[in-house]
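Run log, item B.
One chain of 328 residues. Sequence copied directly from the ordering sheet:
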Amino acid sequence: MPNSKNPKQKEPTAQPDSTNQKSTKRFQITSKQYKGGGALAVDAIVLIIIFTGVFFTSGVVAAIVVFFIALFIVALLSIRVINEWNRVAVLRLGKYVGVIGPGLYLIIPIIESTPIKVDLRVISTPFTAEKTLTKDNVPVDVDAILFWQVHDPENAILNVQSYVNSVLLASQTAMRDIIGKSGLSEMLAGRDIIGKDIQELIEERIHNWGIDAISVEIRDVKIPDDLQNAMARVATSDREKQARVILAESESLAANKMIEASKKYQSDPFAMHLRALNMMYEISTSGKNLIVFIPVESKGFSIPTPIGIMGLDELLKKSQQDKRRKQD
């Protein structure tokens, strides 16, 4: 019988990624939202009162003119247009009542105000630490960039006076703390690790402000000129040392090979003559060298053997001695 599926059996469903859920919840806005339904009613009541008072005192025409003037003033004081990436805090007689945005909103004129605007986009803040001592007492200048984002506008408004300046100051002090715990070699070789440590320390300090530190990028690490020159000399000396060691090893290897070749030439004189011919060929390829052959007694293939200046000097001395013997 063919296999049939059980209708009660549930198909396996893919489990949602916990990382994605965490990142989604991390930037989910949980601030108190402003409910501006009463603002429209208050504005309408104010306009009706103004229109009615002018109508009974000055007539219909004056009432209509005053009504439109009042409508323009009320709209100018009440309407707020908020961009998609912004949130604005609303204060009613100095008390926080919520945030508005994005879109078109109405507030109660004079009674309510919107003094603070919060940007929800990722913000890049450059910061520096000058003449900061490392763990091994070396002063360094470090330039870095912090990428951060507001995830809770309410905490960013209520828990800190100026969240932008506060993030900058927290970043500078955190970087100084991490530099003081790290050595110079760690600063130069492990910038990504240092940046991660700074990011985690900044996150601990600004998380209660409704702000998340996304990442810290180390742009440049400057060290004193004299220390930089000393490090350059050390690197140069190490390379020279390696070059001399390699040259000595090469010369030792070449000497061993020459010893082996000399033993072969000593055992086989014809090989020595062939080597002499090869040397003459190499000398003559440039066309700028002069080769002098001295006729000497030779065995084997009677190949002339080139001799140098010392050989010529010995031949001249021998010839002079022979002449003196003949004269005597």
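Observations after the first pass:
- Confidence is low (pLDDT under 50) at residues 1-27, 298-308.
- The chain has ten helices and nine strands.
Flagged for discussion on Thursday.
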